Structure formats: C-alpha cells, structure tokens
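Escalation from tier 1.

The customer reports that the assembly of two entities below gives different structure tokens on two consecutive runs. Tier 1 could not reproduce it. I'm attaching the input and our single run for tier 2 to review.
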Amino acid sequence: MLEVEEIHTFYGLSHILFGVSLSIESGKVVCMLGRNGAGKSTTLKSIIGITPPKKGSIRFKGEEITGKQPFMLVRMGIGYAPDERRIFADLTVEDNLEIAERKVEGGERWDKERAYEVFPVLENIGSRRGGCLSGGEQKMLAIARALMCNPELLLLDEPFEGLAPVMVKVLEDQIGTLKETGLTVLLAEQNVKTTLRLSDHGYIIDDGKIRYQGSVEELKENEEVRRKYLFI
Amino acid sequence: MDSGYILTFAALSSQFLVGLSRAMILFIVCSGMSFVLGVLRVPNVAHGSLYMIGAFSAFSISTLFGGSSTGFWLALIISPLVVALVSLIAERALFCHLYEREHLMLLLFTFALMLILGDLVKLTWGADYRSIMAPPFLRGSIPIFGSSFPRYNLFLLIVGPVVAISLYLFTNKTKIGKIARAAAVDREMVGAVGINVSWVFAAAFVIGCYLAGLGGALVAPMVSITLGMDHDIIIEAFLIVTIGGLGNMWGALVGSLIFGITQAFGVLFWPQFAIVFPYLAVVIILILRPTGMLKSVW
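Tier 1 run:
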C-alpha cells in the first residue's frame, strides 16, 4: 500500500531523515519505534506532505505522491493524527469532526455516528469546545477526525503519549477495533509494549535512520536491538 | 432649569444614537478587516480602498438609475459585489502568492495596492466630490426623545445588527465558516484533514472585502464621496481592530462602538476637539489592555 524509499527530509538547513525506507502492506499495522527526536514524527510528516522530502520517493497505492500537498494526499486516502493533537480549539468536538467529513461516492464512509461508535466518550462531549478536553479525549478526537477523511492508511503519531495507563488500554482496544475493519495503520510510538501488541511488523528508527526491521515476534526476541535503540 | 435638563437628555440620547449608527458603519468595515486579519493573517491596508470603491460604485449605479429609489437599493446590492469581484481577482492574482511572507512585506504590499487602487479610482471617477440620495422614506428626520433624529441613521441601526447576526450565523453554523475559524488557528492542520486551504483563504478574503464594499455603499448617502476617504477609514479601522482584539470580529464590534460613541459625545462636549476623543479612548484601552478588549486570535 505504501512504499517509502530512501527519503531525506530537512527542517530548514538541518538534515533530519537520512534515507528512510519502509513499506506497508494493505490491512497491516506497522509500527515505528524510536526515542524522542529519532525522526518518527518527521517520517509521518514527510508521508503526509507537511515536510516533503528533498530526496527519495514515496508511493501510495502504486502512485508517486512525493511533493503533493497534504489535502491532496488526504483525499487520496491517507489520514493523519499528529502527536500534538492539534485539535481546533475554538470549535466544538462535533464541528471538529464535521469540517473533516467528506462526501464520497460509494465505498465505506465515515460520519459522526460511526466515529462515536468507535469512541463513545466523544458523543457525550460533542458540544464541548476542543480546547476544553482532557489529553485522552483530544487524542481520541484527533484519531476520529482523521477517520472522517475516510482513510485507507492511517498515520498515528504517538497516540499513547502522556495518557494514563487506563486510557492507554482503552485507546489500544479502539485501535484494535479499527485494525479489524481492515484499516492499514502506521503507528509511531515510544510505548513499546502496547505498540507491539497491536502491530504485525515493526521498524526501529534512530538518528533519522532505520536501524532494524522485522516481524513483531522477531522484535520481541531481540533484546539487544531494543536495549540499544529504545533503552528498554 | 427644568427645560434645560430635558434638552440635555434629548441631546445626549440623540447624539448617542448618532454615535451608534456611525459605529454600525465602522463595524461593518472593520469586521471584514478583522476577519481577513484573523483567517489569512494579512493586515490589509487596501481595505479602505475597497470601502472607497464600494462608495464610488454606489454612486455610479445610483446615477445610472437617475438617483431613484431603485437605484439606491441596486447600488446597495451590486456595489459590494463589485468590490468582492475586485478582491477575488486581487486574491487569485496577487495575495495568494504572498501568505507565507512576513508581515512587514504584506504591509508594504497592501500599502502599495492602496496607492494603486486610489489612482485607479481617480482615473475612473475623477477627483470631484460625488453624492447620492437615499430613497425618500429614508430622508429627513423623525422625533426621538424630544429631538429629531435622521431616518437614514435609524436605517443603519437596523442594518448593523442584521450584518452582525449574519456574520455570527456564517462563522458558527456554516461549514465554510467553521473551516475559516479553524484555519485562523492552525491552517496546516486544516490542510491535513483534506481541505484545500487556498480556496478557504480566497473565500475568506472575498467575504472580508465584501463587507468593506457594503460599508462604502451604506455610507455613500451620508458623506461626500471623494478620494481620500480610503485613508480616513483605514486609520480608524486599524485602531478599532487593534483595540477590539486582532482577528476577533466581536472585538471589531466592541471597538467600533467605543470609537463611534466617543466621537459622537466628543462633538457634544467639546466640538473643536471632537476628533481627539476616540483616539484618547484608544490610548486608554491600549494602556489597560494592550492586546485589545476581546481575545485576539494571534
């Protein structure tokens, strides 16, 4: 579904990603583990076109998408939930979902009701302003908002970061539900345990380079890699 | 003694209404400017020029119909649309390439645009003073609180709230209005939920400029339409938007009320220095609340 090949991304003059490659098969949950500043967020932002790579190529469903604007990529079927949530604070929960909703011909379509089924908490706070939500509620809203764009591939940037353990469990179940519907997910995380439970395949990134990749079983076995790059 | 007291009350209340109706014009113009400032982050110095074009277009349309009532109403409908069209062309041809630039650049650019538009108005309509007439039933005065009050000002007191309510409904109840509010805070994220921000900006700009044109058309029967009215309004508009809170449309309403009413009372208390009062109010507000009365979106 997604092939990232040797991308180099810069923030201004500073070189962040050094030839990152990854590939994601349809229907799988793939995780990218790494420390703060390893390049996880930048990889996701490169894919969604917020910080387009200077070199390398990204293909989605076989089509070259490097350099396309974010709104085009979203319309092609990539959803993005950023780590800072970036909820529209002045808008209510309902309006946050509504402005992302897109009418499409045929196929599976997300609307508010379906989003509330996956995230029941949001229904009760539908009229509350986005800025007045707790961290966990904002995380859910960010994911729900990304789903409203009817993605085939969902990019999740640190969904579990800063959440209470009980919220992490709730969100894990919800992402699990989404996986069962056949959604493809790229999950960038630091929470190794939860992330590995959800994933089929994993990448480890450090200093802007992919250091290791393998199936989840291989990652669980490989103590050395985890100690070296994840401090666990 | 007794009659003197009544006279003062009559004068006060009538002057208050005059200030209030002046505030309505200011609000219509400034809410448009504040909207553009909030959503696009463009301090549009040429906003006053669009107000002037609105007034001159109203003159042309009204003249075309021989100054009849029909002419006035058509002018009120069409001239803001003319301004909207001018702004759409300006946005697609010029502004849309400049959003990422720093504010100083944008100020210089819109200042240049103000000079160009000013000259274009001079070429099109000449340097003469123009005027148009309101329809007969909006002319003259009616007695209110024992003093006479111009009917046209009363008309403005109706139009102002109608515009305010429309703006409220637009920004809170329509999808494009909600998107515009979201874009004011985080335009990148608006793109990342699949919305073409470029067209949102174009729409927001055109709506803001439409309001400038509407203000110009509404003010046309009250003033002499002339070159230089762009400069007068833009200075007031910048102050109003600043004391209200940058990018906050309700701030523009509060600012306009303060500006209009202090001006009107200034005329009553100290006519020779009337013009000073609103500026004094601005100074006091900015000392007490440097970021404006209401929350700025910046």
